[in-house]
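Lab meeting, item 3. Inverse folding demo.
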């Protein structure tokens, strides 16, 4: 330590150093500072703390007590411990008074202080306005800017000051904390001032969109009546040209007392004291777009939003040197939270244009990226499709997209064809394939839920169409299968968030099985505003239903469609999006204006497949040709002909404000006779469909019943074996206990129809030699597999909580298990030393170094206990990779399934005894063992920065 280094800087450097050694593939977030948690955010286990304490003691020449080390929660606690520690005898004291070291970004943005301690959005803006008031936060891409001028900009200081003036006007108008205030404004300076003005006034913003077309004004007003009535809006902020619409809305919503523009509200006088926001307060009400029904108000708090923008920033490694270019609507989550709030938190410059400017000339988006050096941008699938269709080569002269490092594609189903064409078309203009990031999110999780690894590029899965449609299995398609279905991967759950796939009964499914996607995490909503029925349908215990169908492969989520939109006809699952996209390519059909839905047949009671497509071609010959092509496409893609093809005039297909097809609304219009109808299929087709549907439905019911009966059988077998073998192990002499236990395990697997194969047994060391076995952990039954694979008495290292239950306590102790404390850090450190002693005594220890397992696939970071014991005792480590147990008994599920377990035993890993440092020897052992397990377990690495569990992980064992 030099005289110029503060204790805070030294301690933080050492914390980061040890964290990097423990998790070499994980990059700490840029906002990880003195007040972040050592175990939660820096992922330091007990042994990591001891190593860190030793380095701190050496750096400052002091002695820290074990209690101070164990009880330290944050680096700041360690800094305080340094200040209060006793100096070692014979050493001169160092500069022990800690000084402030705010987190700042480098480069041009070197003066931007990240709002690490912000607990609300207003605190976030206050932080930037105080630290960097003159820094440009928002650049509006308007006519002047497009022509090469400066355009309108907003600095942090201008945004805060202008918003507080609007807040004063709202307070003077009678807005009280918690009141809902709707803002119906186009993208522009007024929108940003109004949104934060409402927050500073203590109100709850409710963004709603202005009417897009006069022809749809009645639908627009009707939907907004529902939104404003549900949130009980007290005020409506509008643009000057929307007064007529506002008058209609005020007349139909009795709670609205004030209708005003930003100019009307902004006061130049003294700003009165404004209310303070709290982290748990509702930040705003995000009304879902209502693609399948009436909009619902998603309740989001400051905590939810800050958790989401922070974790998305980590996924994108966002810094103040980035530039985000956006044309996304500010009425929806991707534009409002992802683009604006995310940019605001991370000090990123936001270059933004209105969606209408983009729709009129899509090349504006790409040229804005070129001019401002955009590094991050986002677009739904249709935005990229629009670029492909509407931008001629002559409009791309000189275009350079090489600055882009992330193009997030989300908010609607992602077409593999579109993204491939987009990447191919714009590769000549510097766009890198690695920059394409298909992502997944939903309003109920603020916005972001899953992101792929940065710089990987898209992963497109080709699966067997029939297996998915008939058995809900996402089998990899055979090479050359022209009918294969291409599905785009949307990445893994964001840090601190978790996802799972469940069947109709709520049982968790193994990988490559399609079901309902559920999630949980700090970004998740508490429910829908004043809608207990919808909230109850959203919640499933601690999990939330996404409403989407999906499967997982290698831990990655693949979305197959909306649960409510999926059509089941003749036992086949039909996904509307794929057929809609294909029909949209037919000559004469208006692409993006096709709706596919199921409608019940009043005569036969079966589901009819209906295709509604807009066209401007109404001559009989053309319509007959379009109908034939639609029928042929449907047969190719779904193996089922459409029962009705409706060719309608433009603007018939109903959409949300964000452009999503409202299939439920289209179905209602069709059933009410509001659309032109073609004749239904003849009675013979109805009869055929009825017969075809009966058999698959019976098969599905039988499958569900078989699953339940198998689970009941397995638990009955487990009970009988437990009651039989537990007493035998409890009373047997020591040499007989492990043979009895292995016999019980072998009988349990055999009677359950579960096979076990072991490869690499020849690599096992001498049965009498001391050794440490380590294996990955995915299920409750991993211990069975490990016991049978090793074939010798071993001492499992288990959590001390198991001692509180008499049955496992007696069983595990009789089998020689050792126990470690996970929550009392002082006891945990003492237990670690006991493991070293046991290893030196010649015991064979078996560890699951991940410490726990989680619902989603993946190898978690390894704790250091196993490798510390091996390094200190000088014994080798044997890595063992277990596959298949997660699919047999997944997560905390109670429905076991038959399957196959494969255990692969690796080469012995030994540390270089010439390495004097025991910590380095332990790291070598850990890295070697983990590399082998990662290569053979068939699961993704959850130890990287992108996937490390920074939030709470529900523990299993």
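The presenter then showed the designed sequence:
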């Amino acid at each position: 330590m030099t005289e110029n280094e503060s204790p805070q800087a030294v301690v933080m450097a050492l914390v980061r150093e040890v964290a990097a050694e423990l998790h070499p593939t994980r990059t700490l977030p840029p906002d990880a500072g003195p007040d972040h948690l050592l175990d939660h955010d820096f992922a330091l286990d007990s042994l990591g703390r001891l190593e860190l304490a030793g380095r701190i003691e050496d750096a400052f020449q002091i002695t820290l007590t074990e209690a101070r080390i164990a009880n330290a929660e944050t680096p700041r606690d360690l800094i305080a411990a340094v200040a209060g520690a006793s100096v070692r005898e014979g050493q001169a004291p160092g500069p022990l008074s800690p000084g402030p070291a705010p987190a700042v970004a480098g480069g041009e943005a070197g003066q931007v202080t990240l709002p690490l301690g912000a607990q609300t959005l207003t605190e976030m803006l206050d932080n930037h306005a105080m630290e960097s008031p003159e820094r440009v936060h928002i650049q509006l891409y308007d006519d002047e800017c497009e022509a090469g001028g400066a355009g309108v900009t907003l600095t942090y200081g201008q945004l805060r000051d202008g918003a507080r003036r609007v807040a004063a006007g709202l307070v003077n108008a009678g807005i009280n904390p918690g009141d809902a205030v709707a803002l119906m404004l186009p993208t522009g300076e007024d929108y940003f001032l109004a949104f934060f003005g409402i927050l500073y006034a203590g109100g709850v913003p409710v963004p709603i969109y202005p009417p897009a077309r006069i022809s749809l004004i009645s639908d627009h007003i009707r939907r907004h009546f529902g939104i404003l009535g549900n949130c009980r809006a007290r005020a409506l902020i509008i643009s000057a040209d929307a007064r007529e619409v506002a008058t209609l809305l005020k007349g139909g919503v009795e709670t609205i007392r004030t209708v005003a523009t930003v100019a009307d509200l902004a006061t130049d006088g003294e700003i009165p004291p404004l209310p303070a926001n709290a982290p748990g307060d509702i930040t705003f009400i995000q009304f879902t777009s209502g693609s399948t029904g009436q909009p619902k108000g998603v309740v989001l708090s400051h905590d939810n939003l800050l958790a989401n923008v922070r974790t998305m920033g980590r996924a994108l490694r966002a810094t103040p040197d980035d530039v985000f270019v956006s044309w996304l609507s500010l009425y929806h989550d991707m534009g409002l939270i992802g683009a604006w709030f995310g940019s605001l938190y991370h000090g990123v410059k936001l270059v933004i244009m209105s969606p209408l400017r983009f729709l009129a000339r899509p090349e504006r988006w790409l040229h804005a990226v070129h001019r401002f050096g955009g590094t991050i941008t986002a677009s739904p699938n249709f935005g990229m499709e629009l670029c492909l269709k509407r931008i001629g080569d002559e409009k791309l002269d000189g275009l350079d997209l090489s600055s882009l490092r992330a193009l997030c594609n989300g908010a609607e189903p992602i077409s593999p064809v579109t993204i491939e064409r987009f990447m191919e078309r714009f590769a000549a203009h510097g766009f890198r394939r690695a920059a394409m990031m298909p992502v997944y999110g939903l309003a109920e999780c603020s916005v972001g839920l899953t992101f792929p690894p940065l710089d990987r590029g898209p992963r497109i899965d080709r699966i067997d169409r029939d297996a998915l449609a008939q058995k809900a299995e996402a089998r990899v398609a055979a090479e050359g299968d022209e009918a294969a279905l291409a599905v785009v991967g949307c990445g893994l759950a964001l840090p601190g968030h978790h996802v799972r796939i469940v069947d109709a009964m709520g049982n968790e499914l193994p990988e490559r099985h399609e079901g309902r996607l559920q999630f949980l995490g700090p970004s998740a909503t508490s429910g829908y505003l004043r809608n207990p029925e919808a909230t109850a349908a959203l919640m499933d215990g601690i999990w939330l239903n996404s409403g989407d169908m999906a499967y997982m492969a290698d831990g990655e989520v693949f979305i197959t469609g909306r649960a409510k939109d999926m059509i089941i006809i003749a036992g086949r699952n039909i996904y509307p999006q794929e057929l809609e996209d294909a029909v949209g390519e037919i000559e004469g059909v208006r692409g993006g204006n096709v709706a596919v839905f199921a409608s019940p047949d009043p005569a036969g009671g079966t589901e009819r497949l209906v295709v509604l497509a807009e066209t401007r071609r109404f001559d009989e010959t053309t319509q007959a040709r379009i109908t034939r092509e639609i029928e042929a496409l449907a047969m190719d893609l779904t193996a089922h002909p459409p029962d009705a093809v409706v060719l309608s005039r433009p603007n018939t297909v109903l959409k949300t404000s964000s452009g999503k097809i409202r299939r439920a609304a289209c179905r209602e219009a069709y059933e009410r006779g509001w659309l032109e109808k073609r004749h239904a299929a003849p009675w013979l087709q109805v009869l055929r469909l009825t017969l075809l549907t009966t058999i698959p439905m019976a098969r599905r019911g039988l499958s569900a019943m078989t699953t339940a009966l198998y689970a009941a059988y397995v638990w009955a077998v487990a009970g009988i074996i437990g009651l039989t073998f537990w007493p035998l192990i409890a009373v047997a002499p020591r040499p007989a206990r492990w043979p009895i236990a292995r016999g019980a395990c072998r009988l349990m697997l055999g009677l359950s129809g579960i096979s076990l194969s072991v490869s690499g047994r020849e690599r096992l060391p001498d049965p009498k030699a001391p050794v440490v076995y380590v294996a990955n952990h995915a299920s409750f039954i991993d211990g069975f597999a490990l016991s049978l694979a090793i074939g010798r008495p071993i001492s499992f290292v288990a959590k001390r909580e198991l001692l509180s239950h008499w049955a496992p306590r007696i069983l595990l102790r009789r089998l020689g298990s050792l126990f470690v404390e996970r929550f009392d850090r002082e006891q945990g450190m003492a237990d670690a030393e006991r493991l070293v002693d046991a290893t030196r005594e010649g015991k064979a220890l078996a560890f699951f170094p991940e410490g726990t397992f989680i619902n989603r696939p993946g190898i978690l970071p390894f704790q250091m206990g196993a490798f510390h014991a091996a390094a200190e005792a000088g014994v080798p480590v044997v890595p063992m990779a277990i596959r298949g147990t997660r699919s047999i008994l997944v997560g905390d599920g109670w429905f076991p399934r038959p399957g196959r377990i494969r255990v692969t035993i690796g080469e012995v890993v030994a540390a270089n005894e010439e390495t004097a440092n025991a910590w380095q020897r332990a790291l070598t052992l850990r890295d070697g063992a983990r590399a082998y397990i990662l290569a053979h377990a068939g699961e993704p690495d959850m130890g990287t920065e992108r996937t490390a569990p920074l939030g709470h992980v529900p523990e299993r064992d």
